[in-house]
């Protein structure tokens, strides 16, 4: 793609407008992906402090790393949704939007006067997406939902540890992100349906449901055997050998998902005899005799370095990888070749790096990124351009604290 094509590329969702009431992570991640795909995102934030994540350290130039990570490519409007005028502004914006996204507890948006039925009455084509922790019909419905709570209730934490160790949460906030990811599936499906029927839809996603849906074969192990899978650390519950293996100076990942890869691995180790050994010849035998096989593998691999094994495993066509730190992962050549990191210019901070979305269309990645907005940075722009408000009216609303942020170029907040 040429530089001109890159800077003028609008994305497949160009023209789609999203009114985003969500905050923290489940929701903001989804709206950021929609922005990557070309949608216009208007993020509604509380007047005084904005999205809670604006206050999470560490900071750069006063802006939170957390907020930066989840809120590029969005416009920020600061509204007091407890005031009649603020609610009316939100309704007027919803009337012009294709998608509304929110992640409050069940019933909160209804109490604000911004629930699905209310907004549907002013825009029958509206796709209204609600992300909650547990859904409105759950016995947990009124409990606060955080990623670690959803992980604990999903069963995932119980297997995320080495055998005999304390349960641990996943290193990434998968409960929040799963809710966001499944909400995207629902929203995009509803957009397709609307093209056929002309009507919107209420899309409802629960974080806990999303995590349980992601269990894949782990759920089937329970259904098939009647027993919950046990923790195996980096190993696999039903495939051997698979996981992290010690070397002379570290660890390396080996993943023998098929018999061919197991044969390649045995030959790589110089242990062709293991292929014919009845204890290890087939999947079920290796699984049953894991405790006998793994010491043999460890003893051989700890004789040589990680670099040696990465080279040799590759020569023998055995799936392998080094275990990189976050920094090493971001600096690897793959990331550069795929242009996954982009530098954007922030109004106050200057240059900053952000991670781009991974989806490509005809070789094109996400639309060019813009820096996360200051709180209410786009309030004047949105009210003037979308709703036709004069600067005088905007200033009046600001003086009454109905809105926050910038009211004019000469008047930064």
Automatic annotation (TrEMBL):
- GO terms, molecular function: CoA-transferase activity
Answer whether the UniProt record assigns the keyword 4Fe-4S to this protein.
Answer: no
SUPFAM superfamilies noted in UniProt = CoA-transferase family III (CaiB/BaiF) (SSF89796)
| InterPro entries recorded | CoA-transferase_III_domain (IPR050483), CoA-Trfase_fam_III (IPR003673), CoA-Trfase_III_dom3_sf (IPR044855), CoA-Trfase_III_dom_1_sf (IPR023606)
Key word Transferase present? yes
Superkingdom field: Bacteria
Tell me one Pfam family matched here.
CoA_transf_3
Q: Which UniProt keywords apply?
A: Transferase
Q: What is this protein called?
A: CoA:oxalate CoA-transferase
Q: Which organism is it from?
A: Celeribacter neptunius
């Amino acid at each position: 793609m040429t530089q001109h094509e890159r800077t003028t590329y609008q994305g497949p969702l160009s023209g789609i407008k999203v009114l985003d009431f969500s905050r923290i992570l489940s929701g903001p991640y989804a709206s950021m992906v929609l922005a990557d795909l070309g949608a216009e995102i208007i993020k509604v934030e509380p007047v005084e402090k904005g999205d809670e994540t604006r206050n999470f350290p560490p900071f750069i130039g006063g802006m939170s790393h957390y907020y930066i990570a989840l809120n590029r490519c969005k416009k920020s409007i600061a509204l007091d949704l407890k005031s009649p005028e603020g609610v009316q502004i939100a309704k007027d914006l919803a009337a012009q939007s294709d998608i509304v996204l929110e992640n409050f507890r069940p019933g909160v948006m209804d109490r604000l006067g911004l629930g699905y039925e209310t907004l549907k009455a002013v825009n029958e084509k509206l796709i209204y997406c609600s992300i909650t922790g547990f859904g409105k019909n759950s016995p947990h419905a009124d409990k606060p939902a955080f990623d670690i709570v959803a992980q604990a209730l999903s069963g995932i934490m119980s297997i995320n540890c080495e055998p005999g160790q304390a349960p641990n949460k996943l290193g990434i906030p998968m409960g929040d992100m799963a809710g966001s990811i499944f909400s995207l599936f629902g929203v995009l499906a509803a957009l397709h349906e609307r093209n056929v029927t002309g009507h919107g839809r209420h899309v409802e996603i629960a974080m806990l449901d999303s995590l349980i849906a992601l269990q894949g074969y782990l759920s089937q192990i329970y259904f098939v055997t009647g027993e919950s899978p046990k923790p195996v650390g980096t190993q696999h519950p039903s495939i051997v050998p698979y996981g992290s293996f010690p070397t002379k100076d570290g660890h390396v990942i080996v993943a023998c998902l098929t018999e061919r890869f197991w044969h390649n691995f045995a030959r790589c180790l110089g242990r062709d005899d293991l292929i014919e050994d009845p204890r290890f010849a087939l999947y079920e035998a290796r699984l049953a005799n894991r405790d006998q096989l793994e010491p043999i593998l460890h003893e051989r691999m700890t004789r040589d370095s990680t670099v040696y094994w990465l080279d040799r495993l590759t020569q023998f066509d055995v799936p392998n990888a080094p275990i990189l730190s976050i920094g090493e992962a971001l600096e690897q050549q793959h990331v550069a070749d795929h242009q996954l990191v982009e530098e954007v210019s922030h109004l106050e901070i200057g240059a900053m790096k952000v991670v781009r979305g991974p989806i490509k269309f005809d070789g094109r990645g996400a639309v060019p990124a813009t820096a996360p907005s200051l709180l209410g940075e786009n309030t004047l722009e949105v009210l003037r351009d979308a709703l036709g408000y004069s600067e005088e009216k905007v200033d009046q609303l600001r003086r009454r604290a109905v809105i926050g942020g910038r009211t004019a170029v000469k008047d930064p907040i």
